[in-house]
Amino acid sequence: MFQKLTLVRLFFIIAVSVLYSTSGLAQGFLRADGKKIVNEKGENVLLRGVGLGGWMLQEGYMLKINKEGQQYRIRERIEELMGAKQTQEFYDLWLANHTRKIDVDSMKAWGFNSIRLPMHYNLYTLPIEKESVKGQNTWLDKGFAMTDSLLSWCKANQMYLILDLHAAPGGQGNDLNISDRDPSKPSLWDSPANQEKTIALWRKLAERYVNEPWIGAYDIINEPNWGFEDLAKDKNGINEKKNEPLKKLMVDITKAIREVDKKHIIIIEGNGWGNNYNGILPPWDNNMVLSFHKYWSYNDQASAENMIKTRDQYNIPVWLGETGENSNVWFTEAIRLFETNNIGWAWWPLKKVGANNPMEIKSNLNYNDVVSYINGNGNKPKESNVYSGLMELATYARLENTIIHYDVIDAMIRQPFSAETKPFKKHIIGKTTTVNAVDYDLGRNGAAYFDKDTADYHVSTGKYTAGNKGRIYRNDGVDIAKDSAKYESYYVNNIESGEWLQYTVDLEKKGIYTIKLNVASDNTKGRISLASDGALIAKEITVSNTGGLTTFKTIEIKNIPLKAGKQSIKVLADTGYFNFNYLQFIRQM
């Protein structure tokens, strides 16, 4: 009897838990409500998301490949180096490792509430050239199974999944890499068969996910960029006035979706990489959202005016469907701008071989040789080395093997609406303690550090600026270089006059300290001052010529009284022209 009651009680608990998890916490389908995106309760939903670029669709730059960066060409060249069988092994491992439940769990924990899935059509259906019967659609299990798994992880974390057709059949633009387009074959716009397959794919997806409330929306064509009226002079459709073929296809896709799914938001994107809506509006569906994309421009109110004006004119929500690829300063500015205007966003991408995203996939020596060869800068590597380098790269794509850039996450989630600084690492100062120069505080420019070159605004200025010129270790404006003579050793370089770095330290004891500054210089112009909690403790210390900008020597500043406990130590370059490796605290008494 006791066992029976225990089992009944257990089943009751499980049933209640399931009911609570599936119904009590669910917010229902998202929908457009005037200029807002709302949930089933009518509550405003501000989407804070990340795009999974590089998973189903690799763009060359994400792999450091800058010559013919379409995925199909990358794959062809890998096959030339190590054969079809081993190439398939690499791609199977890449798809298995790149995005897993741990990635979605982590995104939720970091503060994101949505994911944009860039889909490659060839994981869902065959290309028209490979169909055995003209006009037939052969459905492939791989893409649907991957999407199902991702959706299950999103549901478990109460995150919205937005399906984005990133590579449409034939390719939707003349920016070849983003849609893996083969220019020797008919494009999406040149081929009615490719258009019909695109429509059929969306109908199939809508049939499959019609009753899934954690599917946030269908983003039906990513970044169309095609000159319909003047392909020769306007190949990416920036100046297109009518956009008739684009509108017709999006209307046809919408019709096919609505035949089977009346519930989900449909997201549309204009020509010219998502921003040219000439001739496309007004909207033709009452549950529609406009997506704009934004890169490398100023983050002032004027830069959002076209989006806001369009939103107001047509009484329709706007979503920043893709943005990123810049510095932390730019990220913070952009997110503050858009959230202030009630515009949600999806950052690009979650991870790649590069530092300006939440996760960095580490490279390896064998893979570097592959990249060098593909880019035309090196000798042909041995087949065994190619295989080893690529399989290692795919293994490094697993979250636990990546470098997680918490400075990027902090810039996106906390810093847009907080000027508070936080320690990048714990610096407990004992008898003798070294603090690396690159481990300055987390926070905004002007709060945790000050740098004069902080982001890339070349779309607005016509001039490329790098932010962190080294593009390594961190993604702030501070320039960082790697010490080639030491393993995983970094230092701050290109220091300009007036720039500074702040370090939150925790002194175990009050006392008199010597502070050593490890610096490198090829002149005698440099001057450094130190402050603790805003009060000067050392003024305009000369940085001598050490024999070169990579020859580091130590400056000693003695007899500095410091209190116990937490305090902010600021290292100020009164005059620049030096590099900075570390500061060391030595308690004298």
From TrEMBL:
<keyword id="KW-0378">Hydrolase</keyword>
<dbReference type="InterPro" id="IPR008979">
    <property type="entry name" value="Galactose-bd-like_sf"/>
</dbReference>
<keyword id="KW-0136">Cellulose degradation</keyword>
<comment type="similarity">
    <text>Belongs to the glycosyl hydrolase 5 (cellulase A) family.</text>
</comment>
<dbReference type="InterPro" id="IPR005084">
    <property type="entry name" value="CBM6"/>
</dbReference>
<protein>
    <submittedName>
        <fullName>Cellulase family glycosylhydrolase</fullName>
    </submittedName>
</protein>
<keyword id="KW-0119">Carbohydrate metabolism</keyword>
<feature type="domain" description="CBM6">
    <location>
        <begin position="462"/>
        <end position="586"/>
    </location>
</feature>
<dbReference type="Pfam" id="PF03422">
    <property type="entry name" value="CBM_6"/>
</dbReference>
<dbReference type="InterPro" id="IPR006584">
    <property type="entry name" value="Cellulose-bd_IV"/>
</dbReference>
<keyword id="KW-0624">Polysaccharide degradation</keyword>
<dbReference type="InterPro" id="IPR017853">
    <property type="entry name" value="GH"/>
</dbReference>
<keyword id="KW-0326">Glycosidase</keyword>
<keyword id="KW-0732">Signal</keyword>
<dbReference type="InterPro" id="IPR001547">
    <property type="entry name" value="Glyco_hydro_5"/>
</dbReference>
<dbReference type="InterPro" id="IPR050386">
    <property type="entry name" value="Glycosyl_hydrolase_5"/>
</dbReference>
<dbReference type="Pfam" id="PF00150">
    <property type="entry name" value="Cellulase"/>
</dbReference>
